[in-house]
Design goal:
Distance between the termini: 44 Å
Oligomer: single chain
Shape: globular
Bound molecules: zinc ion
Number of helices: 7
Helix content: 10-25%
Largest sheet: 7 strands, mixed
Strand content: 25-35%
Order of helices and strands: EEHEEHEHEHHEEEEEHHEEE
Strand order of the largest sheet: 1-2-3-4-5-6-7
Length: about 290
């Protein structure tokens, strides 16, 4: 009898927003321990996962997103690379499955500089994994992680990012661009400051009206828990109060403008809408899209 292949299929999913094609690229998963979310007992968070149809312990996705137009190929975040174990670092293979080679990526937008978002900028030998790409980061974010004097005051669980960022800056010398606030990054892609999780944490917004998308970075690490209880923070937040304010701001906007959301820890295939539910919100994960419709 033939053995059954138990490997999963490539983690890619394409959607169209105006003239952009956006491809979710899965980098793998982490087991987010319940205590990573502050202020809720493990049993209560398990109950929220169960009410969303999931059985703990749940795997948390790490995603990147490719944005393509006729003129440019832009990656948003690069996954973990080799830094976080065997269940991660799959983004390059999934990029290949989407038909794109690393040297074809023109620009990489960074939501923030935690290892699970920038580790993948580095190849196995710590050289630049994307030989042509320019890397674009909020000036405030870059300043924070480039300054070692922030080390002791930063959340312990993310201090490894200082070393990873130093390696990234070495590998991409002369190819780093910064922006301030809500800048237009490239035609049709706008930065959306969502500070708090980190000092320069930024989402990216593309398209207009009904065909717009916000890639919100790490607004939520555990959507099943933090949509019901948006004031719960995670141990990785640099400024928890600002993280809550940014989360509530973007939840409201997503609801009132019915905007599609993508996020680095949104369950794959990586897109969701949000609905209001009393004082809370619920995530409406988008099912597999069969055709590339708007
Ligand atoms: Zn993250």
């Amino acid at each position: 009898m033939m053995a059954i292949n138990i490997e999963q299929v490539p983690g890619i999913q394409r959607r169209k927003f105006g003239h952009f094609v956006v491809t979710a690229l899965n980098d793998g998963f982490i087991m987010l321990p319940p205590e990573a979310v502050r202020g809720i007992a493990a049993a209560d968070s398990a109950a929220l996962y169960r009410s969303a149809g999931r059985r703990p312990p749940c795997r948390t996705a790490i995603n990147g997103y490719l944005i393509q137009t006729a003129g440019s190929t832009v990656l948003v975040d690069a996954g973990c690379g080799t830094f976080m174990g065997p269940h991660l670092g799959r983004l390059p293979a999934n990029l290949g499955a989407a038909g794109v080679l690393p040297y074809e990526v023109d620009r990489i937008l960074i939501t923030h500089m935690h290892t699970d978002h920038v580790g993948g900028l580095l190849a196995d030998d710590q050289a630049a994994a994307y030989p042509r790409a320019r890397v674009t980061i909020s000036a405030k974010e870059l300043a924070y992680w480039s300054d070692r004097s922030n080390y002791d005051a930063s959340p312990e669980s993310t201090r490894d990012s200082f070393d990873v960022v130093a390696q990234v800056l070495g590998a991409y010398t002369g190819r780093i661009d910064t922006f301030e606030g809500a800048a237009n990054i490239v035609p049709g892609i706008r930065a959306l400051p969502l500070n708090g999780h980190t000092p320069g944490h930024t989402g990216f917004e593309i398209g207009v009206g009904a065909s717009s998308l916000i890639i919100w970075g790490d607004v939520s690490h555990a959507p099943e828990v933090q949509m019901t209880l948006p004031d719960l923070t995670v141990i990785f937040d640099v400024d928890p109060d600002r993280a809550i304010a940014s989360r509530r701001f973007i939840f409201e906007r997503a609801v009132s403008e019915d905007i599609m959301i993508a996020g680095m820890h949104i369950p794959f295939p990586g897109f969701t809408r949000i609905a209001r539910c009393g004082d809370a919100y619920i995530s409406l994960p988008q099912v597999w899209q069969y055709e590339l419709l708007e």
